[in-house]
Amino acid sequence: MKKFLIVLLGLGLAAGLMFLGGCGKKETTIKTPEGEVKVEEEGGEVTIRTEEGETVYRQTTEAPTEEELGAPIYPDAEYVPGSGVTATGAGEGQKISTAAAEFRTEDDFDEVLAWYEGKLGKADIETSEPRAAMWGKYEDTGGVTVRIEEQEGEVVIYIEKYTNE
Predict the structure, then answer these.
(1) Residues 27 and 40: beta-carbon distance below 8 Å
(2) Calpha distance 39→56 (Å, rounded)
(3) Quick check: helix, strand or coil at residue 107?
């Protein structure tokens, strides 16, 4: 469990580096009682290495496809540049991949909700304050989450997919 926490720490650091990083190659080593976490950042790609394996994050400049995300993208939604991220990790006999992105539309929340309900069925979770809805499909080999949320006159759509081999 402690090694898992080390990996989580590294993942958080990687996310920070990804969004704050500029040009050039940067390397950081974090020493903990359980071992070292090595983080390398270069041109929008962050690699995290531990004794248990390696994880590579890539920030994408173009919108991921519906196939990559594993869920439909609302037709009137615009991709938020730089929000797309993919990651692959391997260690201890497992390979995990993820893809995620954020989209926004000025269409009415109820219209977006109805469209997603037509594609995905009734939302698993729906709230009124803030107005939000979420769908999730999870299996042993992976899962997909779609979340819509009303924010300041827009509807924000988050789509995340992961696979576990």
Answers:
(1) yes
(2) 10
(3) coil
